[in-house]
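Chain A, query sequence.
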Amino acid sequence: MNWKVQTVLAGVMAALGLYVLFNPVTVTGLVFGVVPWLLLGAGAIYLLGVIFRKRRRPITMILPGLVGVFLVYAGLSMKLGDPRTVGPVDVSFILSLLLVGGGIAKLASIAEVRKSRYFPAFLGSGVLSIVMGLVVLFNWAAVSDGFLGVVLGLELIADAAFLGAFAFRDKDNEEHKEALGLTPGG
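Chain A, predicted structure.
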């Protein structure tokens, strides 16, 4: 993807993050209203993909089918039951697992950019995601809607920094410099 497009997307993500950060309760309420429908739609897409697949090998149908069933279950559970739970599991607990998992994925993906001048942005984004996930995880019973909104806003800003760092890395052509054995930051 072009670095300019990545930069614009990072800017949009950062703007959304700031909006969520300054309107945490309103946005959290909207999220709880929209998420069940998104889960139902995604689950339906997975299941339709399994049904209309041309090659019907069990190995290529089991995992997408299970994901589709879980997504439909989660959407129905939130829509018909308590919108703050997916079955017996609280949404803030799921959010904390997603934040920690996303932070770990960010940190796992930055090994190749260790020499980049943007490495602190990559590292900071991953660490921030893990820290926010752990805060929500260890305090998940007492987490309020406003706090979840603040965490969501901060995560969007952290993701924007991560995407922006990759955009500027592409702009500076650091990957090509590394392949030539040159120092990317210099």
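The two ends are 24 Å apart (CA to CA). The first strand starts at residue 85 and ends at 86.
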